[in-house]
Write a structure and sequence with these properties.
Layout lengths: L8 E4 L4 H4 L3 E6 L5 E7 L5 E6 L15 E7 L5 E6 L5 E9 L2 E6 L8 E9 L2 E7 L4 E10 L2 E7 L7 E10 L2 E7 L3 E11 L2 E9 L1 E7 L5 E9 L2 E6 L1
Parallel strand pairs: 1-3, 2-4, 3-5, 4-6, 5-7, 6-8, 7-9, 8-10, 9-11, 10-12, 11-13, 12-14, 13-15, 14-16, 15-17, 16-18, 17-19
Length: about 240
């Protein structure tokens, strides 16, 4: 039997009703022992939605449990976060500062997923679409500083014995990352630093893969595909 249990849902508005009434925060919790905090301060038109519940009834009819979510929107306007946690033991921390940044993030799986995600967006019109699916131990960390940067990531098929890891940094403008990991253990490190108009596309299928892309100048493109097991790739563009 499902039951609704709100453990903690804190929405902090500290700058007065003029700002508070123009921001929107929505928290939906189904299951046990969830923690969700939304902080919106010194901005207008910000939106944050946190859903902590089983999002895939095909794999699991049990409600999600023990998920933690923190969303902070400070000193910015018209930023948006949509965060879904549908497994057990998932962690997400999202912070936005700027104008019209967007983050769509989903963590789900059939059992104790223990997914981990952190995101910091500072600037304008930055976007992230992150998806962590199925089994255990997917980790996603990203920092976007600048304007019109984009990250698309999909982590699918890790196990309790294999970790999927993505670590991304974008400092500049109009940089893009499209990264996918499927099955087995895999690591993807992509750093687009102090540069503009770079593109990195990576695909990892199998187990034991490792890749790193460093793009430190403008207008570079990197495309890496790894299949099989235990492949290593490094791209340095300066």
């Amino acid at each position: 039997m499902k039951r609704l249990m709100t453990v903690l849902a804190a929405v902090l508005f500290t700058t007065g009703m003029a700002f508070a009434q123009s921001n929107q925060a929505t928290i939906n919790q189904i299951g046990d022992d969830h923690v969700a905090t939304v902080q919106q301060d010194n901005g207008i038109g910000n939106q944050a939605t946190v859903d902590q519940e089983a999002v895939d009834q095909i794999f699991s009819t049990d409600p999600a449990e023990d998920n933690y979510a923190f969303v902070q929107q400070i000193n910015g306007n018209y930023n948006r976060v949509d965060l879904d946690q549908g497994g057990n033991g998932d962690y997400a921390d999202v912070r936005q500062n700027g104008y019209r940044n967007e983050a769509d993030m989903m963590q789900k799986g059939p059992n104790d997923t223990d997914h981990y995600a952190t995101l910091v967006q500072t600037g304008n019109y930055n976007t992230v679409d992150m998806f962590q699916d199925h089994n255990d131990n997917a980790t996603f960390t990203a920092v976007q500083t600048g304007n019109n940067n984009d990250i698309l990531s999909n982590q699918n098929g890790g196990t309790s014995f294999s970790t999927l890891l993505m670590d991304f940094i974008q400092t500049g403008n109009r940089n893009s990352i499209d990264a996918r990991q499927n099955q087995g253990a895999a690591t993807a490190l992509i750093y687009q630093l102090n540069s503009d108009d770079n593109s990195a596309i990576t695909r990892q299928t199998g187990g034991g893969h490792w890749l790193r892309v460093d793009q430190y100048s403008d207008n570079n493109t990197a495309n890496i595909t790894q299949t099989g097991t235990n492949n290593t790739s490094t791209v340095y563009q300066n």
